[in-house]
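assembly run, all chains below
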Amino acid sequence: MSRIITRRRLLTAGAATAGTALLAGCDRLYEALPTRPLLDFGQLLSYRAHRLLLAHQPLVREYTLDDLSPDFPSNGTAMPDGFGYFDLITSNFANWRLKVDGLVRNELSLSLDEIKQLPARTQITQHSCDEGWTAIGQWTGIPLAHLLQRAELQPEARFIVFHCLDEMNAGDFYYESIDLFDALHPQTILAYGMNGAALPIRHGAPLRLRVERQIGYKNAKYVTRVEAVDRLNAFGRGKGGYWPDRGYQWYAGL
Amino acid sequence: MALSEQNFGQDTAQIRAPARREIIYRHSLVVRLTHWINLLCLTLLLMSGLAVFNVHPSLYWGHYGYPGVPTVLSITGRYDPETAQPVGTTRIGDYSFDTTGILGVTYDSEGRPRPGAFPQWATLGADLAIARDWHFLMAWMFVFNGTIYLLFGLFSGHFRRDLAPASDQLRPRHIMADIWNHIRLRRPRGDAAKRYNVLQKLTYLAVIFLLLPAILASGLTMSPAVTAAFPFLFDLFGGRQSARTIHFVAANLLLLFVLVHVVEVLLSGAFNLMRSMITGRYVVKPDRTS
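ok done. output:
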C-alpha cells in the first residue's frame, strides 16, 4: 500500500513539472525526431494506395450547369507581372504559342486558334484547394492525351512538365508536373474556356491545366510550354513543381 | 505467476491477494497496445487537423464553399476598428459569439494577441504542407491500428464478450439504474466491476462502429482521387464541403468522448485503471454488501 502512495505522490509532483515543461519538451522532441522520412513514407502510402484505387482510370464526377458555383476564387497569381504578359493581353494572345517539346518525336508550336481547332472536351468539375475551399466550374479545352499523341511521346518519357508565364519570385516561374498516369487520363485537359466564355486572366488565360483527380495547385495556370521528360530533378529545386519545391506534396490526390 | 490471456468477465485468473480484494486480468495485450497507439494517432490527427482548419477557418454545407458562401461555422480574428482591441468571433449559423482569447484571437505566453482560429499550442505543423503530411501519416497509422483492433475484437471474442451488452444489462430498469449510478458518481464494485457498465458499452460501441468510421469516411471524401474511385461518398455526405463539416463535428464529438473518458477514469480510480491499461491487471474492490 505504502509503495502505491509513494508512487502516487511522485506522479502528482511530476505532473506539475511535466505540465510546464510539456510544451517546450514537445517542440524539442519534435525537432529531434527524424520526422521527414516518416512523412515521406506516409506520402508514398497515399500515392500507392490511390494508384491502386484508380487503376481502372475512373472519371471524376461531372456536374451540370445548375451545379456551377456562383463564383470561383482565383488562388495564386491573378495577373502575371511584366510587359511580356501585358503585350499578350493587348494583342488578345495573337502572338502566344504553346510549345510541346522534350522527349517527343514531333515538337509542336501551336497558336490559340490552332488549339481551338483540335478536338475539345467540356467538363463541369469540382476544384478542391488544399486550404479547404471548393468551387465548381465548367472547363473547355484539349485533352492532354490528344496533344501528346500528336507530339508522339518517346518511350523514355515519364512525366509531363507544365511551364507557366507567371513569375512568382525573380527568375522563379510557376511550374508543375504530373506523371503519364494522370497526363493520359481523359479528363486531364488544357483548358482555354471557362463557364462558357474565354478563360479569364485570373484563372490562367490563355491556357491552364485541369488535372481533376488532384488538388488546386497542381492545376497550373498560364501554361505556355508542355515538356515531356524522364525525370524531374532538372527543374526548380527538383521536386517537380513550384509548391512541391516549397514542401508541398508532389502527388496531391488528397 | 503466469496470467492467462483471458479477459475480465470470464473465468478470471486470480492472483494471491488479500481477502476480498481480487485482481483480474482486464485488458489483453492487443487492446492495451492499440489503445495507446490510438491515443497517439488521435492526438496528432486532432492537432494537425486544427492546423489545417486554421488555414481556412470556415465550414460550409453542400458541394462548394469559399469566402462569400454562407457558412455553417466560421472563426475569425480581427481588430475592432472602433476600440482598436483584438476580437475573436465564432459564428455558428446565424449566431455570433465573442470568443476572444479562446478562438479567433489567442494570447501567446508574453500576452501578445495572435490571430488564428485555434491557438497555436493546439496545432501541429509549421505550415499547411507539414500539417497535411502529419494528418495523412497519422490517418494511415490510425487505419492500420484500427484494423488490427477490429480483427482482434472480432476473432478473439473481445467485442462479443466485453463490449456487447449482456441481456440483463439491456433491461430498461438496469439502464435507468445505471444512469442513476452515473449521476450519483457511484462506481460499480464486486462482480459488477468485472464488466463494463451498459452506458460504457453502448458508448464504446458507438465510437468504434459509428463515430470513427464516420470520421474516416468523411475525411476520405475530401480527396479528389478517392472520390474519383468512390463517387458515392459525395452522396453519402451530401458533398465535399458537407463532408468537411461532418469531419469537423465528428472530431469534436470524439474530443468530447475523450474528455468524458478521462474524467470517468479520474473518478473511478485513475491509478487502478491506468495500471490495467498498461499491465492488464485490475483490482476489483469488494462489494459493499459483502
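Chain A touches chain B through 44 residues (CB under 8 Å).

Chain A has a mean pLDDT of 91.

not gonna interpret more than that til we talk
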